[in-house]
Amino acid sequence: MAIRRTRRGRMAVALVAGLAIAALSACTTSAQNQSTSTASDTLTIAIPPGINSLALPTNCSSPLFSLTYASLINVTADGSYGPGLAESWSYANNNTEFTLKMRTGLKFADGTELNAQSVVDTLKYFQTTPGLNQGYLKPFTSITASDASTVVIKYAEPFIGMETLLANDGECNNGMMISKAGLAEPAKMGTATFGAGPYTLDAANTVSGDHYTLVPNPNYYDTASQHWKKVVLRVFSNATTALDAVKSGQIQVSTVNDGTLVPAAEAAGVDVADGQRLGAGLMIWDRDGTLTPALKNEKVRQAMQYAIDRPNLAKVLGPRYKAFDQFVPDGYTGYDESLVGKYPYDPAKAKALLAEGGFPSGFKLTVATDAADAGAANMAQAVAQQWKAVGIDTTITPITAGSYFTEVGQKKYSVGAVSYALLGDVYFDAVRLTKDPYADVWNPFHPQDSEVDAAYDKLARASETDLPALSVEFNKLITQKAWFVPVAEAPATLYSKGVEVGKSALLGQFDYISWKATS
Description:
Keywords: Signal, Transport. InterPro entries: Peptide/Ni-bd, SBP_5, SBP_5_dom. This is Solute-binding protein family 5 domain-containing protein. Belongs to the bacterial solute-binding protein 5 family. The protein is an alpha+beta fold. The protein has 2 domains: about 280 residues, Periplasmic binding protein-like II (D-Maltodextrin-Binding Protein, domain 2), CATH 3.40.190.10; about 210 residues, Dipeptide-binding Protein, domain 3 (Roll). Strands 1, 8, 9, 10, 11, 12, 13, 14, 15, 16 and 17 form an 11-stranded mixed sheet that branches. A 4-stranded antiparallel sheet has the order 4-5-7-6, covered by helices on one side. Strands 2-3 form a two-stranded antiparallel ribbon.
């Protein structure tokens, strides 16, 4: 089976982290009060707010979609990639062609056939539907079914992120297949599910925004993995309340992230699993100086790095945060020990670099924050104070929750702060942050840099053997150019009791399908 397990070059969308951060507000009262069975045949999971529609491809991080829509490729319990609707897959023609071999005899939950043409139809729907991740599928030059069980995807330039793009690990569900009924009437997908996953939505026992009840899909291809007679997803806005529900046995798992609760959870005998590591930082978008001329100068961008006291900021952000100042956090492919401490806190050097870059008196800067990303907003406020101390007069502008990506795309802001600025894997971050059209959202000004383009091309053509060294090269280049301002990183947390949850994939997704009660 041609499965690229060792290449962790994964692409994902950043909203995964945004939903987790958004979970730190007041709790949904009705979800707390809903009576929930604690019988061994029912799995109850706390999820954060944010599911405003059931339509794909949205709400990347929720178990709801992995459980009701089957993916072409699955995250497995050990965090690697394994078969889903596709039994095997392979790259060809210098990584410009990707072939999937489908299982036979597949059906959607409504009983209709799921074959290679279903995959073609779904991927073309995603490719032409405006949204956060449309850019990831735009480069596909053709999507065809060579026979009833074989799908061939071609693209003009080399690309090695297909596993993550088509798996259920945070790529905003582009690999989840939709039935003909859903594709025919997309508006209905906002309130119902049209998938082939192990469970289906029980609409009669679901209240949108409060709780979602799932029951086994009789047409699922792997009935042995349907471990529960019922799965209930309850919305909690407060991580402490969700953890209390795990402690008391009202629910078995909480995906509502708050790393500060780890000591309390462990003291109460609750299991803690680390999910996605979120690299909080600031993205410098206007690197050509269109709105803010100073940002075109590399020395100015480097000055912004030296002006930040990362160790102290990490303490402010939370007990699990640790400082980092390169493109890749510790422990991931591409991380370079020689870059540790490349940008120590040195206000005097920051001022000197500003002068060398032509801005001895500093400059004015506006930073955008997302109202749904409280952690990043707090970080940005602290960074703004330190930048002001060296002459960068920084104003923080919060953008209404739900409007962030639209506003950013209109080129209104030179810099933006997010809690998921860097997600750990060089190839994944290189794609989503620097390579058009994949990077449409996170590269709004579309500046050109021949050195970065050349380094990216090497990554996209890399063999498994060469990828680690080339990832280090890319890390060094981007860190030197100071396109991004990493501040601190920490893992998201998952709390459970009485359930085997396994390990998360690189981008934080767990194999929800395999979850079962501990014996």
